[in-house]
Structures are given as structure tokens and as C-alpha cells.
Amino acid sequence: MVIPTLAADSTVADCLRALDRQTFQAFEVIVVDNSGNQAVRGLQLTGPRVRVIENAANLGYGTAINQGWHASKGRYVVTLNDDALPTPDWLEKMVLAADRDPEVGLVACQVRLSDETLDSAGMLISRDGSSKQRGHGELPSAYSREEDVLTPSGSAALYRREMLDDIGGFADDFFLYSRIRISASAHGAAAGAAAMYPTLSCITDTR
Q1: Averaged confidence pLDDT in the chain
Q2: What b/e sequence results for 125-143 when a residue is b if at least 16 CB atoms lie within 10 Å of its CB, and e otherwise?
Q3: % of the chain at pLDDT higher than 70
Q4: Which domain holds residue 21?
């Protein structure tokens, strides 16, 4: 699990507490501090599964994810926003979706806003190449079945390590995550990796 953070505020601790309640517990957490001033230290994060990578400046989303990917050991690399609150069965369902089919290289989920409408149910690519949240502003019930999707949102996604190894990970020169998630997912699709959206695997984004 890789959690990049720029603000490094109390939402990071809230996110980690939600991860402690996951029904699937065989994971590590790597928090990448992009604040440039060691702000994560002030949160006094503890626990055997939590490691922190400190950057002297904001190196951007792509570089932060790559740092966590290279430091991690699991067969999957999961990205999560620092203000996300995953439901207890979120990670279990993401892993099960990937385990069922070795051709699945990416797994998406429902990302819900605090008002319980969708931020995204996977991502789309517009004609101009920009990313667009699938289902943004709609009710979660409209996206309640398992299906293939183009790409997950980088705010909460699972990537098969073998796929990342094949494509070289995330593009360091893409600074913002909206472009990063398209970069990695597009390369994954070109490499033949499928993206899956499992039923009712969801998190709440506190925005």
C-alpha cells in the first residue's frame, strides 16, 4: 500500500486507522512524505506495517508512487489517497478480484464522496486525452455490477507488480495524479493487462 501525502495532516492518521480495520491484513503501508519538511514525523505514526519515505521537496505523485513501489515487497501495489477512508472489506475485494484472473493487471473500485455520491467508478479517457471520472456525481447503485473498465482512479487502485515491472511503473515527469493514472493504465492496457471493477469495493474520499 503506497500513500503519498503533501499536506501530511491528520487525515493520514485517519486513513491508517481505517486500514487497521481491513478484513484482509496481509499488507504493508508505505507513506511517502512529499511535504518537504518532514511533516509526517509530527503525526507520530506507529505500527509494524508502516514505513515512511521522506522527500526533501515535493517530487510529485508519479515519483512518490514509484518510490513506494520499489520499496514494497507484495505481489500487488495498491495506491491510496491520504484522505481516503476504505470500507473494512475494500482491500479484500480488490485482492480477490486480481487473484481470480492472472490477466487482470489493474483493479478499480467505487470512490465515494462524503455525500455518498460517486467521485469515480473507474476512469475514462476523453478525446483530448484528459481523464474523466466514470460515474462522477451519480449514485453508487448505478455502478453496482462487476465489469471490465478502462482504468482505475489512482486515488484507490490495485496494480499487479508484474505489470508495473513490464511497463516501468509510473511516469516521473507527470507531476499530477490525474495524468499519472492515465499513463500507467494506458501502458498497462498496451501491454495486454485488463482492468477490473469489482462489485461494491469502495472507499470514501473525505473531500
Answers
A1: 85
A2: eeeeeebebbbeeeebeeb
A3: 83
A4: 2-205
